[in-house]
Amino acid sequence: MTWGPNRWTNTGNDRRSNGGTRNGNDHRSNGGNLQKGMIDPQRLQMMAMMQMMQRMVGQVSGGPLMHSEPPSSEDGSDGSGGRRQNKWGQKKNWGGQNKWGGQNKQGGENNQKFQNRFQNKGLQSGVVQEVSKDFVVDKDARYEGTVTLYKKWSGYGFIQMKQTGLVPGDKLFVHWKSIDTADRYPTLLKDMDVEFGLCKEFKRGAYQVRAKQVTLPGNIMIEVQDALDAETKSFIGSQHHRFTGNLKFFDQKRGFGYINRAEANTFGEEVPEELRVEEDEVNAAGQKPPRMPSGMPVEFGIWKTQKNLHKAYNMTLTGGLFVTKEALEHRTFMGTEVFTGTVKHYMWWNGWGLISCGEGQELPERVTEKLDEAQSRARAKGKTAAEKFLYFRGADIRKGVEINKGTEIKFQIYVDDNGAGAADIHV
């Protein structure tokens, strides 16, 4: 194979070309005379190199690397029919961060191209403003603003500050984890007035100022999901009627599962015994639903889609308990006493750590028993377990509190199926 300015000269059974004489088993031709035979390995190598070079400059044959269409609106007002889903029912993310905090692979320069594409199409979009390393924020101050954009299924949005001149562009990025909400699926509404704090974070190689602890004005927790559902959904019985059943399975990667309904009374409606439950209807107290065991007893409502499909609504544990890892592990606090200690290990990238209790503190008997059991299990595995530590998760650290190895902290103690741990960690 040779490469010329405007044409290929090929041999073999190639199926791609734009001209030339057809010979052998070729179907289309890029130019030159094709002869019957095997594909030249050098030609394949050259094609791979050319494609790699094209990718390096941001494009491949057939168009740019990133999707050229903007995301559809959630309600289908843009004629797209509503939010897009893949074949497994998962919501697609269109850049930035996904709804549970993971970062889209098309970050950096490509992410900026993506945002520019939005703006060029006349869509409302925000840009995360960068600040210098020396930029100072008041971590205790509260500010007010208006939500200009929030993508519920992607889990992020932007707030326009009322106080001008505090941050570049007077606009802040807000992530779903920064929303103080009672909703099972955190969300903000466009043009909603909110109150929030500021935090500076190092993301994607630069410092950024973001909104934290977002509430309604007056530091009121945000709770809008039930009211929106009452306007848009049709329920069996009523919005707050609870059915019982057992979880057949739930696939975290695909974002859905099925429930075996136990209750017979369906108010005259023909409702299947197996009901689909989607991730956004698992009430995990605004968190990502944990891994759930098959056969788990649950409570739920039932709603009917416009296509007359019945689905589970607001699924909880028996008694209306949130579906959290703590509830599944039967976490029980040992009173309200506050203990002190030191962070011995903190694997922040994995979301857990260990605490050494301060000297002179008498731990509850159940806590001591759990620590002894954990020490015995460690020794049985051949591990050295000279000191007893309390386990903690990143979610058990108070919002806005930063800790590292050696930090002196205060906390409460609990026991669960796995042992003893610390929660409500602060300094």
Feature tags:
OB fold (Dihydrolipoamide Acetyltransferase, E2P); 427 residues; 4 domains; six-stranded antiparallel beta sheet; alpha+beta
Q: Any idea how many domains?
A: 4
Instruction: Give the CATH H-level superfamily of the largest domain.
Output: Nucleic acid-binding proteins
- Low-confidence runs: 1-37, 59-108, 114-125
- Which strand-content bin applies to the residues? 25-35%
Q: Given the C-alpha coordinates, what overall shape results?
A: globular
| Helix share, percent | 10-25%
Strand tally: 24
Sketch the topology as an H/E string, one letter per element.
Answer: EEEEHEEHEEEEEEHEEEEEEHEEEHEEE
Specify the CATH class of the largest domain: Mainly Beta
- Please summarize the sheet with the most strands: 6 strands, antiparallel
N-C termini distance: 69 Å
**CATH architecture field of the largest domain:** Beta Barrel
- State mean pLDDT (0 to 100 scale): 79
Q: Compute the gyration radius: what is it?
A: 28 Å
Oligomer: single chain
Report on the structure:
The chain is of the alpha+beta class. It has four domains: 2-49, no CATH class; 125-215, OB fold (Dihydrolipoamide Acetyltransferase, E2P), CATH 2.40.50; 233-327, Beta Barrel (OB fold (Dihydrolipoamide Acetyltransferase, E2P)), CATH 2.40.50.140; 332-426, Nucleic acid-binding proteins (OB fold (Dihydrolipoamide Acetyltransferase, E2P), Beta Barrel). 13% of the residues lie in helices and 32% in strands. The strands form six sheets. It has a six-stranded antiparallel β-sheet, with no helix packed on it. Strands 13, 14, 15, 16, 17 and 18 form a six-stranded antiparallel β-sheet that branches. The longest helix is centred in the N-terminal third of the chain and has 16 residues, at 41-56. 25% of the residues are buried.
